[in-house]
Amino acid sequence: MPDNQTIKKDKKYKFTPLEKRFIKIYLLLAVFYSIVSVYLLNTPIDEWVFNLGQYNNQLLQWLPRAQYWVNISVAYREKMILLYVLYQGIFWFIFVSTIGIFIKDWAWYKENAIHHTHKRVRKKYLMVFYIFFIGLLLFGTIVLNISEGSKFYMLYEQLDKVGRNNDIFQWNSIYGFIFNRLVFASLAYLMTFGFIISILTTKILFTNNLNKGE
Fold first, then answer.
1. Confidence band, pLDDT 50/70/90 cuts, at residue 212
2. Which residue, 58, 117, 171, 185, could crosslink 167 as a Cys pair with Cβ 3.0–4.6 Å?
C-alpha cells in the first residue's frame, strides 16, 4: 500500500500493455463502425452488399429493441436495424473488456490507481462523492443504451407528435449519427474505468489515513 509520500507524489499516467492493446482495438472498431455506417446509410437497402437488408426481420426477433432506433431516425428508418445490432456488439464488448483489463492487471491498478486521479480531488469524502457521480453516469450510460426510442413502429405522423423528427443532427445526419454513437460508445470505457479507479483510489485514501491514525 502506498505511503503518504507516495500518494502526494504526482506520477505521469501510463497505460498498461493490455490497455494499449485494447485501446487500439477500440479505435479500429470505431473506424470500422464509421465506414459501415457511411456505406449503409448512403446505399439503398436493396443494394446492400450480400443483400443484408433481408435479415432485418430476423434481427428484430433476436433484438426487438432495434425497433427503437428505427423510430428515432426519420431519415433512415429500417436501415438502423443492422447498425443497432452492430453497435450493441461493440458497446458490450468495450464494457466487458474494460472490466477484463482490470481483472487481468488488478495488482497493478491496486498499486497505481491513485495516480490516475487528479491530485485536487484526492480527498477521502470528495472521492466518495466522485464514486457516486461516476457510478450514476455509468448506470445512465447502460440504461440509455438499452432504452432509446419506442417499442412499436411509428408512422411519420406519430413521429411528428413525439418530436422524433427534431433529432436532425443525431439521427438524421450520417456524420451526426456516427459522432453521436462513437461518443456514446466511448462512455462505456471511460465511465467503467473511472468508476473502478475511483473505488480503488478511495480505498487507498481511507486505508492510508487509518494506518496513520488520522
1. very low
2. 171
- Summarised one tens digit per residue, pLDDT across range 169-186 is 688 899 999 999 999 999
Give CA 77 to chain center in angstroms: 23
- The helix/strand/coil state of 44 is coil
How far apart are the two ends of the chain, measured CA to CA in Å?
A: 16
Distance of alpha carbon 46 from alpha carbon 48, whole angstroms: 6
| CA nearest to 29, candidates 189, 174, 154 | 189
Residue 166: per-residue pLDDT: 53
Closest CA to 108 of 199, 200, 8: 200
C-alpha–C-alpha distance, residues 195 and 197, integer Å: 6
What's the pLDDT score for residue 25?
97
> b vs e for 187-197, b when ≥16 Cβ sit within 10 Å of the residue's Cβ?
bbbbbbbbbbb
- Distance of alpha carbon 25 from alpha carbon 30, whole angstroms: 9
Reading the block at residue 204, the C-alpha cell is 487507498
